[in-house]
Amino acid sequence: MQHITVLSLGGSIIAPENVDHEFLRRFATAMETYLSDHPTDKVIIVTGGGAPARIYQQAYKRVSAQPAEELLDWIGIAATHLNGTLVRALFADHCPDPLVTDPTAPIAFDGRILVAAGWKPGFSSDTDAVYLAKRFGAKTVINLSNIAKVYTADPKLEPDAKPIDTIGWADFRKMVGDTWIPGKNVPFDPIASREAQEGGLQVVCADGRNIENTFAILRNEHFEGTVIG
User: How far apart (Å, rounded) are the C-alpha atoms in residues 197 and 216?
Assistant: First the structure.
């Protein structure tokens, strides 16, 4: 029986400041092993923008007298395409399909891996991951960033913030709100959260830098992270 999993691979772990070559090497090696051990499974990887998005958005805001949110989004989207092109190149043997930049367009998904990136302004690549999960019948989106769990508040601002193991969509959406702001730093974007709730999806938030933990999630083994939904 074919099983499809969606990974929302945060730009913060692809390119936190510069491209993290060592992470990508370890991730690619682990993915090769997973595909070999699970010969009927397929994986969709949706890439975020990371440092390229942040650097270029900041440049636009510093130079422009009145930076427009839509243009900030387009800059971030371009960064996700750059990261997506890199990730697709790493998995070229398993990914014959072009980089997906519109989750509603015709998609063949002929290979074992499909790589996607940002689509249009109004939300982050998390939302693209949700759209693709719905489209291909995946029940779970694994959201990989640089945090191990969702917290009750931003631990950088509130030292008493507590990690959360499980949380329902209603409570999670109270935390992140309903409005998308380009470059907004939330565990899972508000628009993606609404779409995931409406689609009955589960989201697992985990630290993508922990390769063993990521593939424990894929294999339905014990893992560290927060389950939403």
Answer: 24
- Would you state the structure tokens that stand for residue 37, as one six-digit string? 């051990």
Nearest Cα to Cα of residue 199 among 107, 112, 103: 103
Name beta bridge partners: 81: none
Beta bridge partners of 150: 164
Strand partners, 204: 142, 227
| Spatial distance between the Cα atoms of 10 and 22, rounded to a whole number of angstroms | 16
Cβ neighbour number for residue 218 with a 10 Å cutoff: 21
**Using CA atoms in the order 153, 155, 159, 163, what is the torsion angle rounded to 10 degrees?**
70
- The three-point CA angle 216-217-222 to 5° equals 65
pLDDT tens, position by position, 42-55: 999 999 999 999 99
Q: What is the pTM of this model?
A: 0.93
- Measured between alpha carbons, how far is 219 from 138 in angstroms, rounded to an integer? 14
Spatial CB neighbours of 221, under 8 Å, sequence gap ≥ 6? none
Sign of the Cα torsion 149, 38, 41, 116 reads positive
The pLDDT of 126-130, averaged and rounded, is 93
In this predicted model, what pLDDT tens digit does every residue of 153-199 receive, in sequence order?
888 788 888 999 999 999 999 988 888 776 667 788 899 999 999 99
User: Residue 227 pairs with which residues in a beta bridge?
Assistant: 166, 204
CA 200 → CA 5, 195, 222, 226, distances in Å? 15, 9, 22, 17
Instruction: Please report where in the chains the tokens 């974007």 appear, as a residue.
Output: 189
- Other beta carbons within 10 angstroms of residue 170's beta carbon come to 8
CA dist list (Å): 49 to 2, 108, 152, 163: 30, 25, 25, 25
